[in-house]
Write a structure and sequence with these properties.
Layout (H helix, E strand, L loop, with lengths): L13 H4 L42 H14 L3 E5 L2 H10 L7 E5 L4 H13 L3 E5 L4 H7 L4 E7 L11 H11 L2 E5 L4 H4 L9 E5 L13 E5 L1 H14 L5 H11 L2 H20 L4 E5 L9 H7 L6 E6 L2 H11 L4 E2 L9 E3 L11 H6 L6 E5 L5 H12 L1
Parallel strand pairs: 2-3, 2-4, 4-5, 5-6, 10-11
Antiparallel strand pairs: 1-7, 6-7, 8-9, 9-12, 11-12
Helix pairs in contact: 2-9, 3-4, 3-8, 12-14
Bound molecules: pyridoxal-5'-phosphate.
The site of pyridoxal-5'-phosphate has 16 residues, from helix 3 and helix 4.
Length: 388
Amino acid sequence: MTKKQQRPLDRASLPLHGGLDAGERDVDSPVVRPLFQSVNFIQEVGTGEGMRYPRYGNAPNAEAVQRRMAALEGAEASVLLASGMGATACALTALLRPGDHIVASSWIYGGTRAFLEQELSSLGVEVTLVDPLEVRVWRRAITKRTRVVFLESPVNPTCRVLDLKPVSYICKQKGIALVVDATFASPINFRPLEHDADVSIHSATKYLNGHHDVLGGIVSGTAPYIEEVRQKMMIWGQAPDPFAAWLLERGLKTLDVRVQRHNANAMRVAEWAESCKEIRKVHYPGLSSHPDHAVAKRTLDGFGGMMALELAGGARAVDRMLRKLRVFQHAPSLGGVDSLVSEPRHTSHAALSPRERADAGIPDGFIRLSVGIESADDLIADLEQALR
Ligand SMILES: *Cc1c(COP(=O)(O)O)cnc(C)c1O
């Protein structure tokens, strides 16, 4: 991998071998990278150069994950932060100054929305939220002061898939940075930089780690830009602990097999759900009934493990079902090996009225599934018995 003229690795191998350091495969090297649970490293006398400190993002375990993620995303560089929110906050503040303007999709993670509306506004950045399906609306919202366009795809919790092409075209024309949160897809299914985005963000808490036991976030882009994000991370104290980086490297090794299984399981569950009379509607981009099926087929390498169901019996039916589930666990968050179910009206969309939720495509009776890697037959049987 470090020798020249070698065949480039396939996508599935990058989470295990991407971004290897020289000497990592020498005789006697450990197959598993040791955890350097140390915040201090001995420094050269007479210079501040090369000083290591985990908050600076240059501790050995974090650096290994950063190189690997850059290889996986096809980016010049990546930086690992303490959470997905830390990643979004540092990625955006590295691009925006007081007086600047950001145009963002209104279909975004609740924490991101709070960051835009509460924090960025107080930093003197003007924020405009738009309906992401209307390219004309994007174009109209952009002003001379617009520096960033932000969107999330696939979208939580409706699993809408946005076409980056018309948006990236406008951004390129006007010299605006396009920042994309692709957490729902994981880099196995979708790599925004390949679709002309400038910056890709992932909550590593979800698919990248995949085991419900680590908080983290990744930002990828050009090397000079990632250096700016790293500066924000240092100052705001958003760097991860070494152990989180070590666990994340371990989780990453199985990323491809996990995501393939999530994709296959979710497809099976979605097909079953479409034929189930207790379920009024299934939101899954892999189904031809999904409004963005064509975009998803063209731009994603897999349809993912996330889906939403609308139960015919509304909120009461949801309550009854959630109490009966045995394999699916009622918990927020997503992207791990265990199947989870959540009700957006009590989590991400709790601040909205029932009417506002219905307008946003989330009527009562709506549940979100994070389909795990259990047997698809067990998952379907669990849903079936809970709906009976
Ligand atoms: C969870 C999530 C985040 C925030 O990530 P944390 O690791 O919880 O801070 C951001 N964006 C999306 C799409 C998410 O699902």
